[in-house]
Specification:
By secondary structure, the chain is of the alpha+beta class. It has three domains: 47 residues, Transferase, Pyrimidine Nucleoside Phosphorylase, Chain A, domain 3 (Up-down Bundle); 283 residues, Pyrimidine Nucleoside Phosphorylase, Chain A, domain 2 (3-Layer(aba) Sandwich), CATH 3.40.1030.10; 88 residues, Aldehyde Oxidoreductase, domain 3. The protein is built from 17 helices and 14 strands. It has a five-stranded mixed sheet, with helices on both faces. A four-stranded antiparallel sheet has the order 6-9-11-7, with helices on both faces. The chain has a three-stranded antiparallel sheet with strand order 10-8-12. β4, α10 and β5 form a beta-alpha-beta unit. The longest helix has 17 residues. The structure holds 5-iodouracil. The site of 5-iodouracil has 5 residues, from α9. 5-iodouracil binds next to α9.
Length: 472
């Protein structure tokens, strides 16, 4: 669009405040100023609040995502990897360690996975924190190192670099202190710009809903998923979203070191069924979306095979070593019957809690468990805070199981501060026991949003940015 002079920042803020639609040039001007530091913090805050209150039209959201992506380096890959570069993103959950087995499983299927992950905040854990509980593991890799690891191993799990989407780093920090984190267009642009800067062929989003998720209801999570899928596809990535329940923890282990252990169990073909389901289903969709599998089901079988044959585990070991872990340490973790605590630090205290009554485990509430773990040092309240990787909790019972009064149901791992009575009380209340008959917990995945026109395994172009729901 021909544009004479950029709007002044007060005029740009007024326009959004009054519900008008910003032009691509307006958004470009704003994002460039954010990146260059030529706009005042109060103006950024006012803009974010105007977006939070008035929302954005689809074309504004796309412009914002494009401009944020272009605020830094966009990764480029060699021609021979064309169609192979994939990643996933989760909106965050308790015990969510899916990325750890998934990245090497995809690499074992021939994909390239430059997984740029985040750190935990409040009750949600971060993939980088989990991996940093392995001695020597470095999340800091430059573009050249990323290329080398992807070439030789096929996957890496790394932190966001200074060069990648700097505008997002600034806006995210401002959203945190201006009560504007929970804005649909701001979340959409923030998530998608980072993935678009990885130049992906395919992206699967795991959008969580429930009592321990950012979005509490299925409807609100679906709205976010729809927005992410639309903008992801408009940005040229084959993007789909899974809507998954987040009320009770994923798997049986929560806390950084314990989650590495459970991920290794999954990579050895063992571990909890719900974790394996999320890994195989997410991977199945990705393999299908990059044309390496005929159908998502076929893709899931391919992923399951990498877990059962050890090929994903070998990729994980190679990734650990490529990212700084000594061979002996990586080997000890990846050995069939490895003693994990030879390598990972065990917390000083363990305490087992017992069920206070008999009945069926109706649910185990993830949020109070995660909040107590956070207080014991497993999580951080502010970016940059230290965490204790050894703090964690092991669930000793499963949802749907009938248990007797006095059954051990939770083992807490902690150092200092020690567990207090008030926290024991909170933990006991997280175990919800009822008189209903025993049952088998169903799938966590309730819906899948795929781009309309996608033909699994075919060559048809993704026709539009709209999407279709598959009800599970
Ligand atoms: N993760 C992101 O990358 N961006 C966001 O806005 C949120 C989580 I909320």
């Amino acid at each position: 669009m021909a544009y004479g002079k950029s709007l002044s920042f007060p005029e740009l803020i007024r326009k959004k405040r009054d519900g008008e639609t910003l032009q691509r040039e307006d958004i470009k001007h704003f994002i460039q100023a954010v990146t260059q530091g030529s706009i005042q913090d109060c103006q950024i805050g006012a803009f974010l609040m105007a977006v939070r209150l008035c929302g954005m039209e689809p074309e504004e959201m796309l412009s914002l995502t494009l401009e944020m992506m272009s605020s830094g380096t966009v990764l480029e890959w060699p021609e021979r990897w064309h169609g192979l570069v994939v990643d996933k993103h989760s909106t965050g959950g308790v015990g969510d360690k899916v990325s750890l087995p998934l990245a090497p499983a995809l690499a074992a299927c021939g994909c390239k996975v430059p997984m740029i992950s985040g750190r935990g905040l409040m009750h949600t854990g971060g993939t980088l924190d989990k991996l940093e509980s392995v001695p020597g593991f470095s999340v800091h890799q430059n573009a050249e190192q990323i290329w080398k690891i992807l070439d030789e191993v096929g996957c890496c799990i790394i932190g966001q670099t200074e060069e990648l989407v700097p505008a997002d780093k600034i806006l995210y920090a401002m959203r945190d202190v201006t009560a504007t984190v929970d804005s649909l267009p701001l979340i959409t642009s923030s998530v998608i710009c980072k993935k678009a800067a990885e130049s992906l062929t395919a992206l699967v989003l795991d959008v969580k809903y429930g009592s321990a998720a950012l979005y509490k209801t299925l409807d609100s999570a679906r709205e976010l998923a729809q927005s992410l899928v639309t903008v992801g596809n408009q940005m040229g990535m084959n993007t789909a979203a899974l809507l998954t329940k987040m009320d009770c923890p994923i798997g049986r282990q929560i806390g950084n070191s314990l989650e590495v252990i459970e991920s290794l169990e999954c990579l050895k073909g063992r571990g909890p069924a719900d974790l394996r389901e999320l890994v195989t289903k997410t991977g199945g969709y990705l393999l299908c979306m990059c044309q390496r599998a005929e159908t998502p089901e076929h893709g899931s079988e391919m992923i399951a095979e990498t877990l059962d044959t050890g090929s994903a585990l070998r990729k994980f070991q190679a990734m650990l070593e490529a990212q700084g872990v000594k061979h002996g340490v990586a080997e000890a973790l990846c050995a069939g019957n490895g003693d994990y605590f030879q390598v990972l630090r065990h917390a000083e205290y363990q305490e087992v809690l017992h069920a206070e009554k008999e009945g069926t485990v109706e649910t185990i509430q993830a949020l109070p468990l995660a909040e107590v773990l956070h207080e014991l040092g497993a999580g951080r309240s502010k970016a940059g805070e230290q965490i204790n990787p050894s703090v964690g909790a092991e669930l000793l019972v499963t949802v749907g199981e009938h248990i007797a009064k006095g059954t051990p149901w939770l083992r807490m791992h902690y150092d200092l501060p020690r567990l207090r009575d008030g926290q024991r009380h909170t933990l006991q209340a997280a175990l919800v026991i009822s008189d209903c008959p025993p049952f088998t917990a169903g799938s966590r995945i309730t819906e899948i949003l795929t781009p309309e026109g996608m033909r699994w395994g075919g060559t048809e172009e993704l026709s539009s940015a709209s999407s279709q729901h598959i009800q599970i």
